Structures are given as structure tokens and as C-alpha cells.
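Inverse folding, one chain.
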């Protein structure tokens, strides 16, 4: 699998690094091995490759490996916007997942969506680890979700802030859509915003949307 996967990208590890990768405890998990290979085939410095292999193989399970993947995404894609943490914290907080347009709106500035030129590199890196259903993206496996929680959602305050950003986003949508009724009250509940939740539940449009 190692040789055939890397050959698709005209890459190779060499026999010693290949053996280190295959013999690593984490590589018994297919997702771990595939993710490590995907990270290594994107690494640009052949001279530093042994050090990079050792870095990834310090992880002995997929959750630890994805902590390292998250760091690499931050280094490569953040563009001084804290983009990786913000995008994945919001996905962690979403009840049903997020559409790409919702992500762009949430990550934008001054009422303008995030430019796709900034978004697409991170999204393409995340996409193999996402599941899509009905136009909404969610975590494709629990290893990435847990890594995100461990790295970015470390306190009750972090959880509150992530849920509140989504609650405010859906509150500001003028039309009562099914998405708004799915997410808005739930986000307020998860944020512990009880006074706001009480007022929201008295909203007739929301009541009718939930009833339907």
C-alpha cells in the first residue's frame, strides 16, 4: 500500500523510512497510515524527510496524528486569520454540520464572505476527512473531531464562544428556514443562553417551523 500510494504522486520514501512507517504502532490503523502517507507526500524537503517521518510517527494513534495534522494546516493555511481554529471550532459546534457558503459567511469580515482564494486550500485539505449529507459537511470520523476538541475547545469558555457565534449567525438570518430552526435554538441551549432561548421559543415563526 505504501509504495503504490506514493507512486501515484511519483514519490518514494526509501527502504529505511518505509520500514519505519510500516512498523510504527499507529500504522496498524488504515486511517493512520493513509493520513501519514498523505502528509508525507506533500512535504517538500527531501533532506528533512527523515525528521518529518519521525515527527508523525511520534503519534501512536490517529487522534495524536491528527493533532500534528492540525498544526500543519495552521502553518500552511492560516494566512494570519486563525483560519484553521475558527473553521474547525465552528464545525465542532454545529449541530447538523455546515454548508460551504455558511462557512464562508462565518469566516468573513465586515459582512463579506471569506474569499475563496483563502478558503479553498484549507477546505481541500480537510475534505478527505469530512462527510457530506444534504449539502452540509460534518466530521467524517471521530478522530479529527476529538483532535479538534483537544486542541481548540479546551475550556467551557471555548465551547460557549463557538456555540454563540453560530447562534448569532442564524439569529441574524431574516427568513425562518429549516436550517435556522434546526440550529438557532439548539446553539443557544448549548451556549447556556437561557434568557435568549426563552425569547426565541416564543417566536411564532420558529414554533411553526419546528411544528412542521
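Residues assigned per position:
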Amino acid at each position: 500500500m505504501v509504495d503504490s500510494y506514493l507512486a501515484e504522486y511519483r514519490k518514494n520514501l526509501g527502504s529505511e523510512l518505509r520500514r519505519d512507517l510500516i512498523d510504527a504502532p499507529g500504522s496498524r490503523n488504515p486511517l493512520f497510515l493513509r493520513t501519514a502517507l498523505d502528509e508525507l507526500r506533500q512535504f517538500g524537503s527531501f533532506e528533512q524527510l527523515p525528521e518529518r517521518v519521525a515527527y508523525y510517527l511520534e503519534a501512536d494513534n490517529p487522534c495524536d496524528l491528527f493533532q500534528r495534522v492540525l498544526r500543519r494546516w495552521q502553518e500552511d493555511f492560516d494566512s494570519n486569520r486563525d483560519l484553521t481554529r475558527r473553521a474547525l471550532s465552528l464545525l465542532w459546534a454545529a449541530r447538523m454540520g455546515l454548508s460551504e457558503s455558511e462557512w464562508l459567511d462565518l469566516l468573513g469580515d465586515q459582512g463579506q464572505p471569506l474569499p475563496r482564494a483563502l478558503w479553498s486550500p484549507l477546505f481541500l485539505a480537510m475534505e478527505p476527512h469530512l462527510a457530506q449529507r444534504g449539502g452540509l459537511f460534518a466530521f467524517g470520523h471521530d478522530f479529527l473531531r476529538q483532535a479538534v476538541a483537544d486542541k481548540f475547545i479546551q475550556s467551557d469558555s471555548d465551547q460557549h464562544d463557538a456555540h454563540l457565534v453560530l447562534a448569532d449567525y442564524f439569529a441574524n438570518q431574516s427568513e425562518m428556514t429549516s436550517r435556522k430552526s434546526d440550529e438557532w435554538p439548539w446553539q443557544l441551549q448549548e451556549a447556556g443562553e437561557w434568557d435568549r432561548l426563552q425569547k426565541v421559543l416564543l417566536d411564532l415563526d420558529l414554533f411553526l417551523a419546528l411544528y412542521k
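The first strand starts at residue 130 and ends at 133. The chain has three domains: 2-60, 80-153, 155-212.
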